[in-house]
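Posting here for the record, re: cobalamin.
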Amino acid sequence: MRVLLIHPPDNKNCIAPGRFEPLAHEILAATIPDHEVRILDLRFDAITALERQLDSFHPEIAGVTVNNTIHVRQAIGILEKIRSNHPDIKLITGGHHPTMVPLDFHLSCVDYIFLGWAEESFPEFIRCMEQKCSIDHIEGLEILANAEVVGRRENPWKLQPSGIPFPRRDLVSRYRNRYRSDMGFRTALVNTTRGCGNRCTFCSVWRAANGHFLVRRPEDIFNEIASLPDDINRVFFADDNTFIRTDNAARLCRMIMNAGIRKKYSGYCRSDTIVHHPELMREWKNIGLDNLCVGMEATDNSLLQKFNKKNEISNNEDAAKILNDTGITFRPHFLIDPSFDLADFRRTGDYIRKLRLNSPIFPILTPIPGSVYHEEVKDRIFLDYDYFDYAHAVIPTNLSPRVFYKAWRRLFQRSYPLLRNLMLFLRKHYAQLMGNKKLEMESCNYSLLNLLILKVLSVFLTLKLKKHVRLLEAGLIQL
Ligand code: B12
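Prediction output follows.
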């Protein structure tokens, strides 16, 4: 069968677009090696490329991935376009959002919705389509007819780690140069786990996986990393909990070290994992781990409890020390609640200064569909999915929008003082020159280019936010 898998275009409202490979599509393509698959990435190709592919490749099935709520409208636009011009093509969708809210895709431009991990359902679906046999038995699939659900079987979550094949990166080789981190490194996404063992109220990952947590074998992850093209110099671990099974993480680290693979690594890590396993961080640093996102979320324990984070502020603070001592730069994330008042913003800024956190990120707490938080505030949501990028408050803020966004911007500006970063940069180079390893580690890892990129990004962010506030005040955007 001919299958076209499509990543939707960026949402123009999104302040921090993702620029990594469409891993889900590469993995799904690998589950059907006997079929012809093409991947079209509309973040980089113009929409005209879609029409060209449809006319030249003549796919029998076309699928769109929708991991992010901000992509829902884009995805639907693509599906509608295909349906209206090529009504014979069977249209499918899957990913995080349709798994949580299939209702959003109960549309005449959708024939099948995949629920959850699809390594088993997708190849079976393709087999049935080819052999023109019934698909009623396929688990993790919703079947639609004229926008109505005519069949649904829950995902049995029976996928075994060994059932995850190596991604077909060859299918996106023409985009390889475009898949870069925000600092411009050519990056591969490597998946080490699925789902999550934690139960944070602001996150829907554990719910989308129905509570399941799947851990890939270190041997498989190692083989995947070893097979990456040489010109990919960075791996971003595409999961929420790469290091949580510390024995596995240590084994993977040793394998990479013994094989002499020289790449840089980044990903997500909980602060308690860092605190309980500082040696693991040091070992990973030695093989190239140089950046981590750490969900610190709040500046006091009561908020962490409210989020059901099952962690403590003291762990956040100790983790910061360990990472600084180890020389791993990290981006602590602190959630900015729309109910924040000016004192909350000030307290967060003071905390960042006190701990000397160099590159904090302040996502605005967003009720992601499927999360506990969404259930709590869903009646107050006043902006549509286009604004679910963690950079817009989608429920009303306690402060006026103008004051809220100004305080938010100010928090970023306070946390990235150019002069201090320049001093750290100079100090780092001085330490390198003098061979003072300790001082070098304590100093910021930003290059001048990175600092410049950050400054440009902040100007861009400021302009976007000012426009957003103007539109809000004029009542021009609402649900
Ligand atoms: C890696 C990652 C990123 C990377 C890369 C994204 C990219 N491609 O460029 C980075 C760090 C850049 C990133 C950025 C963001 N991310 Co992100 N990210 C992830 C993460 C950790 C893993 C995604 C992944 O690759 N998984 C591995 C693949 C193999 O699994 P999968 O995608 O689920 O696919 C399987 C099934 O879903 C299904 N499937 C998927 N698509 C399709 C399509 C079809 C046709 C079929 C049949 C099946 C199918 O089959 C696959 C195999 O089983 C997820 C969390 C998670 N655990 O899923 C968050 C997640 C998707 N991100 C999230 C968010 C919010 C963001 C940001 C908005 C954050 C921000 N403030 O900037 C940005 C948005 C970027 C953008 N515009 O795209 C949220 C989305 C929630 C939501 N409903 O919106 C998630 C769920 C995290 C969370 N904790 O809530 N992200």
